Description:
Elements: H1 10-13, E1 26-35, H2 39-50, E2 55-58, E3 74-75, H3 83-89, H4 92-100, H5 104-115, E4 123-130, H6 133-148, E5 154-157, H7 159-165, E6 173-182, H8 185-198, E7 202-204, E8 211-213, E9 219-221, E10 225-234, H9 245-248, E11 252-261, H10 266-272, E12 278-281, E13 288-291, E14 297-305, H11 313-324, E15 333-343, E16 350-354, E17 358-362, H12 369-383, H13 388-394, H14 404-425
Helix pairs in contact: 2-8, 2-12, 3-4, 5-12, 12-13
The structure holds flavin-adenine dinucleotide (FAD).
Amino acid sequence: MAYTPHTTSYYAASANPSPERPPLNGNHETDVCIIGAGYTGISTALFLLEHGFKVTVLEAAKVGFGASGRNGGQIVNSYSRDIDAVERSVGAQQARLIGDMAFEGGRIIRERIAKYNIQCDLKDGGVFAAFNKKQMGHLQAQKALWERYGHTQLELLDAQRIREVVNTDRYVGGMLDMSSGHIHPLNLVLGEAAAVESLGGIIHEQSKVIRIDQGERPVVHTEQGQVKADYVVVAGNAYLGNLVPQLAAKSMPCGTQVVTTEPLDPELASSLLPQDYCVEDCNYLLDYYRLSADKRLIFGGGVVYGARDPANIESLVRPNLEKTFPQLKGVKIDYAWTGNFLLTLSRLPQVGRIGNNIYYSQGCSGHGVTYTHLAGKLLAEALRGQAERFDAFAGLPHYPFPGGRLMRIPFTAMGAWYYNLRDKLGV
Length: 427
Ligand SMILES: Cc1cc2nc3c(=O)[nH]c(=O)nc-3n(C[C@H](O)[C@H](O)[C@H](O)COP(=O)(O)OP(=O)(O)OC[C@H]3O[C@@H](n4cnc5c(N)ncnc54)[C@H](O)[C@@H]3O)c2cc1C
């Protein structure tokens, strides 16, 4: 069978040592079989193991092969659509439950890092940057909304103050969230996987699931083996393909690109982001950036609907990098890669059960570092018979993308183009 390594990225090049895990071979039994070793799968495994379950994780490639090992590393609170959108689409009690969980993922990440001593360069502080008054107005409303749900580590930044944290003249203001922050994303998931194994969990890499037989005890098949389990958790997200067709119908894989510069002169690096906060802007098609521990600028953006691999990643990202920091014109890019996230029409996570014993969580639509850690806790709670918080997400309505299989990509790209134009015009 072909061996699938990590994508060529700065994160893979600077990953902490991690063992090769053997593929699944032969017939096995367990309490819970998890498909996918990204944050969703590994976080679920860890919560379950902490509560005495036997767990086997099957990963098609390597731990952190998907978005969890490729992302911008930004710990962003709440969801890709904010709590106000949830309040508008579901009843008060369900919205209250989901709102109350909007800041839990970041806490889980910090607890995991402390408890299992994970070396992943955690830094506190993240900034939302506004290009115009309209976006600034949204940030003011967001601050009031988040404060209503008990999150108070927020500061609005005026034009002068934002320049003290981001050395560019592109923004009219922003909002600093001190419970946001950034991590080396691949090292986070590798550290969590080591924690899974320290508690007796089993992870098989190079073990693509090709079929799930539903039943009283479902059976999960790979090319060379099978696992019979009481429960299955599907955590393949944008890399799942058509393994579970009913999930694929209401979600769409999308690509986003990341580049990493050569290490910058330390003075230049700290002149760009003096407090070492991470930044994402408020555009619909947003850019996100931060410094690495070895003082490179990691800059992401350039969404591609339908997740085709772009021919030239650098050309999609460099223009906005240089517009943001003209000081870096012509800077050498050492790494450029693409990664897929899973978009839903509502941009809220797609969560639920198939029959009694197959559970899933996917589709956090761009902001998933925190939500996926929360998802692990919710899935584990549900399997332990406490499903109230899981069901709050499972009850969110989801619809297919307009345009059907053939036209949904151009239709969605057109919608994004429209919102992007509005961002540019500030209307
Ligand atoms: C480039 C990029 C930048 C991003 N930046 C940020 C950010 O800064 N902040 C933020 O909050 N969010 C960000 N996100 C989103 C975030 O990374 C994701 O929401 C999150 O990592 C999803 O985790 P996951 O475990 O659900 O999926 P993934 O990490 O994609 O993991 C799914 C895993 O399942 C495996 N798999 C799939 N099918 C099978 C199968 N049949 N058998 C076995 N294994 C299978 C895959 O190989 C993969 O390893 C970004 C995403 C990308 C792509």
